[in-house]
Every structure is written in structure tokens, then in C-alpha cells.
Amino acid sequence: MGELVITTFDWVPELPRGYVRDIRIRWALEEAGLPYRVETVPFRERSAEHFAHQPFGQVPWLTDGDLSIFESGAILLHLGNRSDALLPSDPRRRSEAIQWVFAALNSVEMASLPWFILLLSGESRDTSAWKRIDRFLESRLQHLEPVLAEREWLAGSFSIADILMADVLRLVDRFERLEGHPACKRYVARATARPAFAKAYADQMALYATTA
Ligand SMILES: N[C@@H](CCC(=O)N[C@@H](CS)C(=O)NCC(=O)O)C(=O)O
Known about the structure:
The protein is an alpha+beta fold.
């Protein structure tokens, strides 16, 4: 077990502040009570060393001793091996949680991300591309709604699956796209009311306040 270091950008524009994906890692580490440090890399000038850690020139990545790992989902799975507070040790529960990790990233974020790209492009919502992407996201939310209406957390107890799903939905909620999906909204409120999220959020905002 090595020292845990999260690397994120030294600065980001105002819009993504509070939503940079290092928050997922901070949140998990706070939930698990594991000590960690945060280091930064330049947002504007991305070095060869940055690409050596994160091949797409993005953040975050985590180093755990001499291991360097990128992709927020992979990082959370890695940390899940370190703490039952993040991933249950019971094999059945663990598999359930892992399936929801992939659902958050590969079924829900897969629909929400193109939606944001279109939203931020400022393109008219009248286009068929917009309508198609909006229907895609709507369908994912509609199917998630009854799941979240009947359970507190995705896989029994709170896990990394909830960190990912809540973080994905939190951004959807920011742009009022969870209206008409009250269980999804309540789930986001429940997850973000956790002290570990509050600490992770405050720390990310504090970093960007100092580098504004
Ligand atoms: N799939 C990656 C996505 C990482 C990602 O989108 N990072 C954003 C910050 S939240 C980033 O680095 N954006 C800058 C860029 O794409 O150039 C993960 O989950 O770690």
C-alpha cells in the first residue's frame, strides 16, 4: 500500500468547477477515511509526462505508490479493493456494485455526455440530432427512475457505484434535466448530503478559488 496522490488540473474555467472528475476520487477517499494528497498539472500546457499518466491528456489520475492509474471508474475500482466502505467484500454484493459502476459510466454517462456537448454548443434544440440525443438521455432516466424509487443505494449499501451514478446525475440535475424524475433527484440529494461529498466538493472549490 503506497501513498495515495490524486492529480488534477491547476486551473479550470468557471463552468466545470465543482464538477471536475477528481471529485469522484476525493469523495471515495473521504468515504473510506484513507489519507491522500492532491497534486496539480497545468491545464493549458499538457506535458509528455501528463500524457504518460493519462493518454488523453485529461485528469484525474491516481498514484498508489509506484502504480499510476487513470479513468475515474478504474481508480474507484482500485480503491474499492482497499475498503469495504467503497465496495462490499461479499462476492455477490460486490458483483452487483460493479455492474452499477459500469451502468453509471457506460449506460447513463454515455447518454448524458453527448447531451452536454450539444447543450454547450449552443446549437438549436430543434435539430433532429438534438432530439435524438435528448430522447436517448430521457430513456435512460426513465428506466433508472423506478430503480432509484425503490432503493436507497444501488447495491445494498453505499458504494463506488453510487459515487459514479450520483456524480453523473448531479451534472444532469445542474441543467434541470432531472425534472420529471423525482426519484433520481432525491437520490442525488441523498448522495450529495453525505459529509464525504461535502468535503470533496469544498476542497475542489477551494483549489480553484486559490488559482482563479
Ligand atoms: N473518462 C475519463 C474522463 C476524464 C475527463 O473527462 N476529464 C476532464 C475533467 S472532468 C478533462 O480532463 N477535460 C479536459 C480535456 O478533455 O481536455 C474519466 O472518467 O476519468
